[in-house]
Amino acid sequence: MELLKEKILKEGSIVGNDILKVDSFLNHQIDVSFLNEVGKEFKKRFNDVKIDKILTIEASGIAIASIASQYFGNVPVVFAKKSESKNLDKDVYETNVYSFTKGKEYSVKVSKRYLNEGENILVLDDFLANGRAALGLKDIIDQAGANLMGIGIVIEKGFQEGRELLQKNNIRLESLAILESIGNNTVKFR
Ligand code: 5GP
């Protein structure tokens, strides 16, 4: 997606040698008109499948999924919760995810009320690195007996193992931009 590539080049910055920071439009401040284009593009990519719900993970996935939902007929958006909360239902699907950016494992939960057997689920998220968040969401969908129709990612870090892991699990993956490398303070696309 050309607009996304332009924004990454113009507004992105590299932290260390493997983190791309895009806080100005995706991870801190949200560029709503840009996310509308992202939503349209996801719809184009997954136009051949019927989607009942979109599943994502808090926090950055929520805006992406909510705006995209409008192009999928306003299907409900469910987000997996990372934080402990007294508010959360007791009856949950739960899985553990190793966080690439935090360097530690955390548990994510989805109330059993919001994922049902036989539903067609599209997973959307901001980044794909080693694929742990994506596989965690697949585990939750499997526990619910729902169908994972595909995973849509805004920015895939092609130099990490996420794509390979998802392919091994026969998961359809659509990434709107794939980074070949982000070394030497330079972003290269695949
Ligand atoms: P994975 O589970 O695929 O290893 O990592 C994906 C998650 O880690 C994403 O949801 C995102 O929150 C975070 N992440 C991984 N790499 C990056 C990065 O380079 N930049 C940002 N902003 N987040 C990242």
From TrEMBL:
GO molecular function: xanthine phosphoribosyltransferase activity
Reaction(s) the record says it catalyses: XMP + diphosphate = xanthine + 5-phospho-alpha-D-ribose 1-diphosphate
BP GO annotations: purine ribonucleoside salvage; xanthine metabolic process; XMP salvage
CDD domains (alphabetical): PRTases_typeI (cd06223)
UniProt keywords, alphabetically: Cytoplasm, Glycosyltransferase, Purine salvage, Transferase
Domain Phosphoribosyltransferase: 36-161
HAMAP family to which the protein is assigned, alphabetical: XPRTase
Oligomeric form and interacting partners: Homodimer.
Annotated PANTHER family: HYPOXANTHINE/GUANINE PHOSPHORIBOSYLTRANSFERASE, XANTHINE PHOSPHORIBOSYLTRANSFERASE
Protein name: Xanthine phosphoribosyltransferase
Gene source species: Romboutsia maritimum
Gene behind this protein: xpt
